[in-house]
Write a structure and sequence with these properties.
The protein is mainly beta. It is built from five helices and 31 strands.
Length: 568
């Protein structure tokens, strides 16, 4: 792979992150915080303010400077935001007001922040939302973003399914800093089946037995959040300490009964391979009932769950039979083929303390089917697009930026799917790492992954681009490159080295983020339907503008994000 460094396509090395003085923080000293629910104000509008405050994340971290989405009624303060609960059949207005300080408390890299300014600007995105481009909170549709004292008011129309979404900042070139500082929160879409109450018709836990769990990793120096200084850009940032719902390695006291846990990977770059364990022995298994796009048609029993940044897993855990036990949420080694340079490794994330008595027995059996759930079954695609995932290196072999199809965010739009059509998008990963690829607007169906000779593909791609530009071939040993497609890539057909492998059982539901592994072609199928508020909009309207990108936030900021537009 390093031989391809001159072509700027493969990873040959990484810039070292500046090291912070390590802090020794005893685990399981803080009870898991549960975000409060957002309160509707006048006219039914949910008003949130992006503010700076402090958060007690651990007894040794009593006043960590953070950002968060706070309610103007004084119900919340500190890290993250309140959980917004909506009925999927209704429309809701949410207003986000920027009340942040003038200067960011984390170091800003001016080159990465770009021409839109380096002050404390925000742009809140409803991740997984079925919304128009101007309500989506993406920098292609809303290029001005929101500066100090300004308010981003958005309308969230009816949603296709009940599910767990999340809202987080998406300011161009600043997403990694703003989310790391704390600008994120849960959003629950409810319906007549997934009511969130114990007496729901699905037969799953609800009420206080439904627990949101947002997984992140942070580094602390001098009792404050540490991020790499602004003298350099790093392709990934891995914190040294697990933080769950804003607390360092917390514990949660649970009754010996069934619980519904919703895991969200809100980290910058870290992947999690989750398992429940009691010491060296297995604990209760997971029964996964949903992913990003909603509930499955039936539970999937599974011992370990892989979560890349932005992925969610909705699970049932049965703690009966474990009374008196302390169960750890472990982070195991990644599955074969999934590649991440995460250092240091974080082996344990939080603890569940199973204690009696049982206040409310709740459901007694895992349901065999899930009322209101669905299984994707899209029709045949009208088009297949190939998207290459690439890392550009400098002369010394250090990463400079990430790209898709050799293009950066500000290059002209090339992906313009037609409204109400189905397309397959195949992500050809010729970089050295796995990328969590997130699509705005659509939920999609994962079709499969197929192995590819990434080295030969990358060489021929470099030659095809050089030939199109009338430049010398960088790999003369392969003098006859294939035809360059209109989107600056080549078809992967001749480079496949095996058949397509079907997705895992817990990947067969609706998704908005998918793991694209190196030396594989990851194929997804999606319909480009426009939501209420965007249907019938003019051809070049911002209502039709969206983005797709890697959800490793350092990759997204520089420059693994591309716009797409839905045309008539």
């Amino acid at each position: 792979m390093s031989a391809l460094g001159g072509a700027g396509l493969m990873v040959a090395g990484r810039l070292p992150a500046a090291l912070a003085a390590p802090m020794s923080l005893t685990p399981y000293m803080v009870s898991l915080p549960i975000p409060p629910k957002a309160v509707r104000g006048a006219g039914g509008v949910i008003r949130l303010m992006a503010q700076q405050s402090t958060q007690a994340m651990h007894p040794r971290l009593s006043a960590v400077k953070v950002w968060g989405y706070n309610q103007d009624v004084g119900k919340t303060a500190g890290y993250l935001g309140p959980t917004i609960e909506l009925n999927r059949n209704s429309s809701t207005t949410v207003a986000f007001t920027n009340k942040l300080p003038i200067s960011h408390f984390l170091p800003v890299n001016i080159e990465i922040a770009g021409s839109r300014g380096t002050d404390s600007r925000i742009l809140t995105h409803l991740h997984g939302g079925f919304v128009s481009g101007t309500n989506d909170g993406n920098p292609y549709a809303t290029q001005d973003e929101y500066g100090l004292t300004e308010t981003q008011q958005v309308s969230y129309p009816p949603h296709p399914r009940a599910t767990t979404l999340w809202y987080h900042d998406h300011a161009l070139g600043m997403t990694r800093l703003n989310v790391y500082a704390g600008l994120a929160g849960f959003l629950r879409m409810r319906d007549d089946f997934d009511t969130g109450k114990e007496d729901n018709p699905i037969g799953i836990p609800g009420g206080p037995y439904e627990v949101p769990i947002l997984l992140q990793d942070k580094t602390f120096s001098g009792g404050q959040l540490f991020y790499s200084p602004n003298t350099t850009w790093i392709p990934e940032f891995f914190g040294k300490t697990p933080v769950v719902n804003g607390a360092v390695q917390p514990f949660l006291r649970v009754e010996p009964r069934m619980y519904r846990l919703t895991f969200l990977n809100g980290s910058q770059s870290r992947f999690y391979h989750l398992e429940l364990a009691i010491g060296d022995n297995p604990g209760p298994r997971f029964y996964q009932i949903g992913s990003e796009g909603g509930m499955f048609d039936a539970p999937v029993p599974i011992n370990r769950i892989l979560l890349l940044p932005a992925e969610r897993a909705d699970v049932i855990v049965d703690f009966r039979g474990f009374a008196g036990q302390n169960i750890e949420l472990k982070n195991r080694a990644l599955p074969r083929g999934v590649v991440s340079p995460a250092t240091p490794r974080i082996p344990s994330l939080m603890q569940f303390r199973v204690r009696g008595p049982v206040t409310t027995p709740g459901p007694q059996t895992i349901p065999t089917t899930l009322a209101g759930g669905s299984k994707p079954n899209l029709g045949a695609p009208v088009k297949t697009r190939y998207i290459t995932l690439e890392e550009v290196l400098d002369a010394a072999g250090n990463p400079v930026r990430l790209e898709m199809n050799g293009r950066v965010f500000d290059d002209p739009v090339k992906e313009m799917p037609t409204e109400d059509t189905i397309e397959d998008w195949s992500f050809v990963n010729i970089s050295a790492d796995t990328h969590p690829i997130h699509m705005h607007l659509t939920n999609f169906q994962v079709m499969g992954r197929r192995p590819i000779n990434g080295v030969l593909y990358a060489q021929d791609l470099a030659n095809a681009r050089a030939k199109a530009a009338n430049e010398p071939l960088p790999f003369p040993a392969r003098p006859t490159p294939p035809r360059l497609l209109e989107n600056n890539t080549i078809a992967p057909g001749p480079y496949y080295v095996g058949p397509e492998v079907a997705p895992a059982a817990n990947e067969k539901g609706w998704k908005d983020t998918v793991a694209a592994n190196p030396n594989q072609v990851t194929r997804i199928r999606q319909m480009f339907e426009l939501p209420e508020g965007a249907e019938g909009s003019p051809p070049d309207s911002p209502q039709r503008r969206y983005v797709y990108h890697c959800h490793i936030l350092e990759h997204e900021d520089n420059d693994m994000m591309r716009p797409f537009k839905v045309v008539q």
